[in-house]
Amino acid sequence: MDARTPPAVAKTASPSLPRVAIRPVLGFLHRWVGLLIAGFLFVSGLTGAVISWDHELDDLLNPHLMHARAQGPAKPPLELAKAVEARDPRVQVTFIPLAPEPGEAYAFGVAPKQNPATGKLYAPGYNQVFIDPANGAELGRREWGAAWPITTETFVSFLYVLHYTLHIPAMGGVDRWGVWLMGVIAVLWTIDCFAGFYLTLPSRASARSGKSFWSRWKPAWQIKTKASAYRINFDIHRAFGLWLWGVLFTVAFTAFSLNLYTEVFYPVLSKVSKTTPGPFELRAPAPLDQPIVAKKTYAEVIETAKAEASKRGWTDPVGGAFYAPGYGIYGVTFHQPGGDHGAAGVGTPYLYYDGATGLPAGERLPWKGTAADIFVQAQFPLHSGRILGLPGRILISFTGLVVAALSVTGVVIWAKKRKARVARRAKA
Predict the structure, then answer these.
(1) Fewer CB within 10 Å of terminal CB in the chain, N or C?
(2) Domain boundaries defined on the chain
(3) 405: Cα separation from own chain's centroid
């Protein structure tokens, strides 16, 4: 106490407050949050390890859909798109590949039109059509992301949708229950990353040993292979969590940002940082059964986009074009053949156009914009590892297996400790 401090002040200057023990609180949080999300992360980890190779697996499992058979020059994609719609008037083409890889089939995306007799959407039972570029023959159709039946044609997309929605069906006219659930799981996982990290740090009591901080923390990074099965299990859980902590946190956070993008992530980000909203942030989606019919054609929009790209000095060809019926927006992207999957970076550039007027509606330029814009662009490439190209995909695939292992080892640790507690109580 300073000699100049009055006695009355001295009595109240340092009031005695209850000390909160952080480690037990975080231990409780890590235990029960971990148990709550373990099953979800096990499924998400395993599926994530597989879908890092979605394109390659699709090629391997479905050569009859993915590979062209006829020889000769490719027909114009816009001409083939018109043929797809002519064969089935119930659908409209929503994606046209314009720069496929040599030897690959054209994979057109389609969506159902509105049935004028019922006011509801048709149910064609497929959303992708595969066309041979040379002769225009239809190689097959499939429902990408179908929950059932699981076939070689739907296996990869089944895992993809399972990864972030668990295939939870629509209820009450809302089809995002699974997306929201996995988004909440990702939020809990993000928080739990910090709790788990703190619990690996040496306790204050261990400081009395006189050893350096690293000497006391070093065992947490190691796996004792000549120990009991439980100890090895515990070391695997702790060490792998430390080795890959940065990657695990990145995957957890980006899972939250992607699943709760519209509901939480983007609104919060736009409040704390300067963002440049795109057409999908500025427009509310149309009702599901009332798709917006475009007045402009693909050909008109693509020519406009080509002219704009030429003005900007872009050298990559038009890679693909899509139409979003729920928003009335066209998008045109530019890349080399095969550049739309597995390439390093934050994706390809897009120019957006209004489907009714053909006027520019926005753009997405890789690594361009405010810091918040670039942060938004990086979310999926970070989550999938594609931001680093092939090495990143390998890392994310391995991380998916680690996530599944951490889920299992965490449950084993809890079960072992619970068994010991029950035994002590019974003995007492």
Answers:
(1) C
(2) 22-51+180-202+216-253+392-427, 63-151, 280-368
(3) 20
